[in-house]
Prior knowledge:
Elements: H1 5-32, H2 37-46, E1 50-52, E2 60-61, E3 64-65, H3 75-89, E4 94-96, H4 107-116, E5 120-121, E6 124-125, H5 149-169, E7 173-176, E8 181-182, H6 190-206, E9 213-217, E10 227-228, H7 233-243, E11 247-252, H8 262-271, E12 275-280, H9 297-313, E13 321-324, H10 333-353, H11 356-364, H12 368-380, H13 384-394, H14 400-406, H15 409-417
Parallel strand pairs: 1-4, 4-5, 6-7, 7-9, 9-11, 11-12, 12-13
Antiparallel strand pairs: 2-3, 8-10
The chain binds D-allose and zinc ion (2 copies).
Protein name: Sugar isomerase
Keywords: Isomerase, Manganese, Metal-binding
Organism: Aestuariibaculum marinum
Amino acid sequence: MKIEQNHIQDTNKSGLQSHKENFDFLANNLSKKGANVEAIVSKLKDFQVAIPSWALGAGGTRFGRFSFYGEPSSLEQKIQDIGLIHSLTQTAGAVSLHIPWDIPQDYAAVKDLANGLNIKFDAVNSNTFQDQKDAKETYKYGSLSNTSEAVRQQAIQHNLDVINIGNKLGSKSLTVWLADGSCFPGQTNFQTALQHTENSLKDIYKGLPDDWSMLIEYKPYEPNFYSTVIQDWGTSFMLANACGEKAYSLVDLGHHLPNSNIEQIVSVLMLKGKLGGFHFNDSKYGDDDLTVGSIKPYALFLIFNELVYGMQNNPQNPDLAWMIDASHNVKDPLEDLIQSLEAIQEAYAKALLVDQAELKAAQLNNDVVKCQEILQDAYRTDVRPLLAEARRLAGGALSPINAYRALGVRDTLIEERGKHTVATGL
Ligand code: AOS
Ligand code: ZN
Ligand code: ZN
């Protein structure tokens, strides 16, 4: 299935007049406050977030998995699904592949397909947290940190293979997330595990093309429940520094202990030029991978406020690889992704509304109340007409969810692919 431009325009028709009124009203008010509305809308239009190939099927837990029907069963179908949400939102112009779940059979065909849908290949993800079919060594007791040299070599080689695959598709970064750690005190030697990990990462780094970056993800626990080798941003930052200038930390919103000040982590990493990638999701308890903005939208806004500040003030930090890293048990995965994209754009738009000069002046005066007023005034603004306008200008839907339903996308996918489908991957 492909969504044609004229179908999107048809679904937009009935809402166009009221959108125009809402947008003009908001734009007027914001302009009076000194905001450059045109610049904000154009920034929203340019902001693209990668969709990971594992987010397109219904998720699940060890307690069960319920199909949503019509799920993609090949890499081509996954890219087609991203094409569908991209045509409606104009925000999902990239895919992040997971190897070995998504090894292309025919590279030229996969590239052509993505090209035709305006989808780029973002970071490629390696997988050393599962044993692969016919693999000689097992990752049961770790991969890059394993006490066995043969296991470490196999995991290093896998990462080099992933770089090679990504290179053929035009990717420019490798994301390394390790499940390595221990479940019980005494099970591993912390120092040895970290040292092995550092050396292994350095070996992978040696195989990184010049124009590539390596993104090192951290996570405090799960699947290991006592210790994780790369447990926090400090460890990831240290490893990135040890590897070299093309290595960066990657922040996943779900990978922090409760109440961590993620916006401060983002800010420090950007100051040091070491924030390379970002995984969006939301959570109540741990790495819940819920829809972005569904639980803590204010925290998301505060994080975006630091991201925007960093993008404007930290030329030492590279452009970030943005990705949604979510999974869901009870929603249509495509609707879930549309909601996540909307929440990301909303937080970004609100952060763009913060008057940085005014905030700085209030900070210099130690006017604590004023500082809070400035942030909350931006946060409380209903920016949805700005998002809709950015989408409209780019040829997308005024309301992607409504259009998705009106166009009967899921029903068509079920017709095409059948009811009893199982997506590959997680
Ligand atoms: C795992 O918790 C991490 O968030 C990874 O980024 C990602 O979810 C994993 O690589 C998926 O396979
Ligand atoms: Zn992640
Ligand atoms: Zn995660």
